Amino acid sequence: MYEQTTIAAIATPPGEGGIGIIRLSGIDAAEIANRMFETKKLHNFHDAVPYMMYYGKVMDNDRIVDRGLAVYMKAPHSYTGEDVVEFQMHGSVEALRSVLSLALRHGAVPADKGEFTKRAFLNGRIDLAQAESVMDIITARGQAALVQAESHLSGALSQYVHETREKLKEFITKLEVTIDYPEEDLEDLTVDEISKALEEINQSLTQLITRSHRGRFIQDGFKTVLAGRPNAGKSSLLNALLQEDRAIVTDMPGTTRDTIEESIRIGGIPLILMDTAGIRDAENQVEAIGIERARKSMEEADLILMVIDGSVPLTDEDRRILSSLEGKKAIVILNKYDLEQKAGEAEIRSLISEETPIIHLSAQYVSGIDRLEELIQKLMHTEDLDAGRQLFLTNLRHMDLAEKSLELIHQAQKSCADKLPADFIVVDLTEAFHKLGEITGENVDDELINSIFQNFCVGK
Ligand code: GDP
Ligand code: ZN
């Protein structure tokens, strides 16, 4: 056990709710519960049957703070691997804070961000990749992200890393024999065998990395840009799409002031909708920067929704934007369909490629939005979204380590082909072995561990 302290935190989000959970973990968890929780069933909370729910009262001396359930999870069979007590109280900010401060008064210390999961890792309950997937589950946007995070937590990634490292280890050992006993004529046999094995590892890593690059949207969503000149109806369309998706809209923090970003899902397809329009509506002096930024975001977009005001004739700016759609996934939207249409559809057709669909709708009257959504689904659906069974890397740290390992494998293959001495190959393979190990947390330093868990929330 790595810590003698007992940590405590509110594990549920702040705000009113049906229930709220306070979690204690550490050597004194049961004793602290004993001092603050009263239940008719027990004289002493130390005697609690593990995993049994006890109904009772949290007491601050003679005062009842709140009523609820308590459960004792005995080390090592708990989330953290330590003694854990969880109180299920009413989901009231005041009640939960009072229960927490009581626990602190009785000897617990406030848990740091992610400290429960960090303890689970340090106590060997889960490896680092699994610990990170816990946070991915909490922050998953969309079904595909959840499926991946869950599979990482189940150990699919850890298993892959483990198997690949085993193969590397096997060949490192064989090569070391040839270094130590050069007179043993193993060379020819091993070089062939090793080239073949390295090629297999190379291919499997390459596929994993390519698939993960392609599947980046599983975690982030497809970058979708609302393009079009001022007043075409971009903001109205954004609102119409958000309205339809109101229940699952989340605000994305940290977006720039003049770009509105919203994360939404359309029939299971995660999108990050970006309305760059605000830039152009803003003061004139920033217009140049705005145009540049809008152009850049169009370049980076996975999907462009080009909005045209259908009630007025096409302008040069419309033509310019239409011509820039070449080679991009895009949908041209003739908006304001409730008004008389004056934008020439034939001309629009002539400016865009055949595959780019044109659709009419009215953003203001939220009419035709469902057809747009169908179109988006059809256009953006990829097998990766269904590929729950395939392993993806969704974490940048893992991706970086996998790419570094692949590079080292490449190097080793080259040394092999160039018939360099075995030492060279061993050095690269050993390094690749370590890099892969960092994914699951072998030989990682405290600093890295701390920085990873700092991204967690308190109470997890
Ligand atoms: P943006 O500058 O491209 O973001 O355009 P806005 O969404 O701000 O809309 C510009 C103006 O067009 C506003 O006055 C809207 O009310 C109006 N508008 C947007 N969509 C429609 C529509 O479908 N029909 C009509 N009649 N007006 C619309
Ligand atoms: Zn706008």
UniProtKB/TrEMBL annotation:
The keyword Zinc-finger does not apply. It comes from the Bacteria. InterPro entries: G_TrmE (IPR031168), GTP-bd (IPR006073), GTP-bd_TrmE_N (IPR018948), GTPase_MnmE (IPR004520), MnmE_dom2 (IPR027368), MnmE_helical (IPR025867), P-loop_NTPase (IPR027417), Small_GTP-bd (IPR005225). Mg(2+) binds at residues 235, 256. Residues 221-381 form the TrmE-type G domain. Gene3D superfamilies: P-loop containing nucleotide triphosphate hydrolases (3.40.50.300), Probable tRNA modification gtpase trme, domain 1 (3.30.1360.120), tRNA modification GTPase MnmE domain 2 (1.20.120.430). GO terms for cellular component: cytosol. One of its GO terms (biological process) is tRNA wobble uridine modification. It holds the Pfam family MnmE_helical. Keywords: Cytoplasm, GTP-binding, Hydrolase, Magnesium, Metal-binding, Nucleotide-binding, Potassium, tRNA processing. It is an enzyme of class 3 (hydrolase). (6S)-5-formyl-5,6,7,8-tetrahydrofolate binds at residues 23, 86, 125, 460. Its cofactor is K(+). Binds 1 potassium ion per subunit. Homodimer. Heterotetramer of two MnmE and two MnmG subunits. HAMAP family: GTPase_MnmE. This is tRNA modification GTPase MnmE. It comes from Allisonella histaminiformans. The lineage of its organism: Bacteria, Bacillati, Bacillota, Negativicutes, Veillonellales.
